[in-house]
Amino acid sequence: MADQQDFALQEQQADEDIARLRSQINLLHHRRSLLSTTLLSHPQTLTHLSNSKSHRPSTKRSLSRLTSQHHLNTTNTHRLLTTSTLVTVTDPSPTAVDSGRILGIRIDVLIAGRTAIPYTLLLHRPYPELTNAWRVHKHTIPAAVPLQQMLERWLPFPEVDATNGVVKDRGEGGQDLVGLVRELRREVVRWGRRKWGVEELRGWFGVTRRSGGIGAEDEEDGQDGVRSVDAVGGEGREVRIEWGEGVVGMVRLGEDGRVEGCVVQDGEGVRRRDEERLLMEREDCGLDDVGEWMREVYRRRMRE
User: Fold this and answer.
1) pLDDT by residue (tens digit) across 62-79?
2) In 3D, which of 218, 257, 224 has the Cα closest to residue 238?
3) Is 156 helix (H, G, I), strand (E, B) or coil?
């Protein structure tokens, strides 16, 4: 009995030591990231590396990291200085309500150092003589973004009896245009990052095939045995990956693009839990880690 108690105490002490070491490692990773960002953001760093005549691989890697940091800084600056743009336009239709007055909201999403296609939400007032409440006129918001849910929360339209001229609020606190724009932009940016991440995966592996697409059987596989990479699901938060021989992986992404879970099955529908753990054991796992994991899955299959 005493030996069992000693063993239990030693095991508990070992677990505590491991947890403490992991915490220290995480702190060191954060410190290294902060120092790297500070050094790469300094203007003298670019001047020094650009003037260097060295052709060593380390210099080329440093310049590559410097370029990536510059794109990140540009992204952060854009987010700080640019939110959303409000514009007023006129509907030329002779039957347009409110004399054709339209309020437009333009959202520009900056991803990977470049501006994507702007997304627009147009609003109008269908009963301007009774209420100033806004209703959606037209929009170009992606279907994966839950716009209708946001409208119900931030822009509830009152009950209007145009015949008797009666307006009855729905008791939900009225319309909050600022809250709508804030949440809408956040969700559009998140969707854009997920979409861009999937396209990056397709580019890394040279994938042209889309699962279930017309003529897909005539297209060649990409690198490392990857046959297709597709975003699926209503919000584009699931990534379906198909390798040869019917092996399929499904990766679930969170709102910020981080991996929340994954499932891998072989051609007979049997779970491959070892390969699932390869991904889920990574800390703060993103789509970059998914790319490395996809290559590792292929290597493991080749060794079988």
Assistant:
1) 667 777 777 777 766 665
2) 257
3) coil
